């Protein structure tokens, strides 16, 4: 997936990911580093396969969405800008500045940005990509085995309390 690799190699992506990892170094709750992003990507793709959504969603669009969905976390921690809003802005900058041979189309960029902007609100997930991202983001978290669960701010109904949902 050369287009996904172009996002991964993008200097702004790398800068933001390093900032997130540094800012979350001592975080006891869920972190938003590469392991989480890849878990979300893989779960999204599995859900897309199970639901027959691969006829309308390409694997690279799914993976790009997952890799970019939390890219606004540093802005949230440092400037109090909600990470979904910051994420849309940063993701658009990254997608808009990869070289032309690895660019996502304007329609794909809009679809990805829309999913990032809606990923915190399942009710706001209008597109199939948005719904997959919302679900995969929650399923990627093993709340049932988390030692910090008693202090977690997530409502219990949003927590992933079983191995399989």
Span between N and C termini?
29 Å
Give me the number of helical elements: 8
Report the sheet with the most strands, covering strand number, pairing sense and barrel closure: none
Task: Give the strand tally.
Answer: 0
Shape label: globular
Q: Note the beta-strand portion.
A: under 5%
Which stretches are low in confidence, meaning pLDDT under 50 for 5 or more residues running?
none
- The residue-averaged pLDDT reads 92
Helix vs. strand class? mainly alpha
Percent helix, as a range, is 55-70%
What order do the SSEs take from the amino end to the carboxyl end, as H and E? HHHHHHHH
| CA-based gyration radius | 15 Å
Write a structural description.
The chain has 165 residues and is mainly alpha-helical. The chain is 58% helix and 0% strand. The chain has helices spanning 2-9, 11-23, 34-51, 59-68, 73-79, 83-97, 106-118, 128-139. The protein starts with a helix and ends in a 26-residue tail after the last helix.
Topology of helices and strands:
Blueprint: H1 2-9, H2 11-23, H3 34-51, H4 59-68, H5 73-79, H6 83-97, H7 106-118, H8 128-139
Helix pairs in contact: 1-4, 3-4, 3-8, 4-7, 5-6, 6-7, 7-8
How would you briefly describe this protein structure?
With 165 residues, the chain is mainly alpha-helical. The chain has helices spanning 2-9, 11-23, 34-51, 59-68, 73-79, 83-97, 106-118, 128-139. The two termini are 29 Å apart.
